[in-house]
Structure formats: C-alpha cells, structure tokens
Description:
By secondary structure, the chain is of the alpha+beta class. It is built from 3 helices and 2 strands, in the order αβαβα. The chain has a two-stranded parallel sheet.
Amino acid sequence: MDWHYWEKLREKQPGLEGVTMSGYAMPLDVVKSKEASYLAHLAKPVSLAQLDEAIRKVVHRTRMQP
C-alpha cells in the first residue's frame, strides 16, 4: 500500500474518499488505513458483496458532502 501517494492525493483534494485493497489485512494495516482516511480496508480475495458495500459507502459519503 502506498500511503505516501494517498496522502499526496488528499493534500490536493482534501475531501477525497477511498477504499484500499491489499493482500493482507493485519490489524496494523487496518489501523493505518483508517488513519489515512480510507473508508474501508479490503483483503484479497475480495467478494463481490464486500466490494459492493465499500463502493456504496464511498458513494453515500460523497453524496452527503456539501
């Protein structure tokens, strides 16, 4: 996961929402994802239901922003 890249994107677009996916979802990875303002941390293999839920979360949050 490239935390540095995500931080640079959020500097340019402060309200940017995102979901991260990795081969691991160790507790520390999930904590780092939340600290980096990702809305979800998905571990591969990701089910269609998990991906759908994560996308819906991003869309919902995006619609709620002014």
